[in-house]
Design a protein that fits this description.
Shape: flat
Order of helices and strands: EEHEEEHEEEEEEHEHHEH
Number of strands: 13
Helix content: 10-25%
Largest sheet: 5 strands, antiparallel
Number of helices: 6
Distance between the termini: 29 Å
Length: about 300
């Protein structure tokens, strides 16, 4: 299996996979969703009670407009920066693996985030950007996620919560899945059969796609071919234009080549997610191979 990146994007990944089959690509797709680990807030601690307001003339109560369970869910879905070389799973952490579950948590397997807010008459929106990393300043919430709302506090209310982020896998909970919208399809080449007919029909539909993009009668850019495939729905069967177009452009699959695409949630770059998925898949195959050797000997 050979994998080539097709995009250089912060969150969107597209890769050309060669010398493989559908079963292997589907295994890679499932690995991306279920097996690649990432950090996520899995436990929260709310500070309950009352405190003096800033003026000292009254009390503020630890309450807000949302139930604690909803806030905990929102915290769990905020993308936490993940460096897989720096952190252990808690049950593999040399400092915590022999401790009871409730006592696990150190700088090698956990990041603690905290946020405090005091309400006003107009209301104060608490957002993901207000989360401060307490145990490791190297992992602040990425700026592009700062606007994610968590809750809102009004006059007489204060909000204080701590979130504990640990490594996990998507097969255990979606909050640990680093990707979404994972799809794959066969790689194809577009073959230009009749340039004049294609240009006339596309021009009549005001489509910004020109047969001039074809080199020697073929379009081989995988992502551009995908865009062309979408446009061809306008001239396919039952469109009313299929006779005029008459297969002026046809798509031909390339044997053993596929395109896999996904969106990263932002915890890791698409390339990092793909590399880790390949490692996870290779380790799984190695494990199966070892078990087969033991069983057959």
């Amino acid at each position: 299996m050979i994998i080539e990146p097709l995009l250089d994007d912060v969150t969107k990944g597209a890769y050309l996979v060669k010398e493989t089959d559908r079963a292997a690509v589907n295994a890679l797709r499932r690995t991306l969703m279920s097996d690649v680990p990432k950090m996520a807030i899995t436990r929260t601690m709310f500070n309950q009670g009352t405190t003096d307001d800033d003026s000292g003339s009254g009390k503020m109560e630890s309450t807000n407009v949302l139930p604690d369970e909803v806030i905990a869910h929102r915290l769990a879905m905020i993308p936490i920066p993940t460096n897989l070389e720096e952190f252990y799973f808690q049950d593999e952490c040399p400092n915590c693996m022999n401790l009871p579950d409730k006592e696990r948590g150190c700088q090698s397997c956990q990041i603690i985030y905290g946020v405090k807010a005091r309400g006003t008459a107009e209301g104060v929106v608490v957002r993901a950007g207000d989360l401060d990393p307490i145990t490791d300043d190297e992992y602040p919430i990425a700026e592009r996620f700062h606007s994610i709302p968590i809750t809102k506090v009004y006059e007489g209310q204060y909000f204080e919560v701590y979130g504990y982020a640990v490594l996990g896998r998507g097969r255990d909970h979606p909050k640990w899945s680093p990707v979404s919208a994972v799809t794959f399809e066969a790689n194809r080449v577009a073959v230009l059969k009749n340039a004049k007919r294609a240009k006339d029909v596309f021009f009549s539909l005001d489509i910004e796609f020109s047969p001039d993009e074809f080199t020697d009668g073929k379009l081989t850019d995988p992502l551009r071919v995908i865009e062309l495939d979408k446009l061809l729905h306008l001239v396919r069967t039952n469109s009313g234009r299929e006779d005029d177009f008459n297969d002026a452009i046809v798509l031909e699959e390339i044997k053993g080549e596929f395109i896999i695409r996904f969106d990263s949630d932002g915890a890791m770059s698409p390339d990092t997610v793909m590399r880790q998925a390949c490692l996870e898949l290779r380790n799984r195959y190695d494990h199966i191979q070892e078990e087969l050797k033991i069983s057959l000997n």
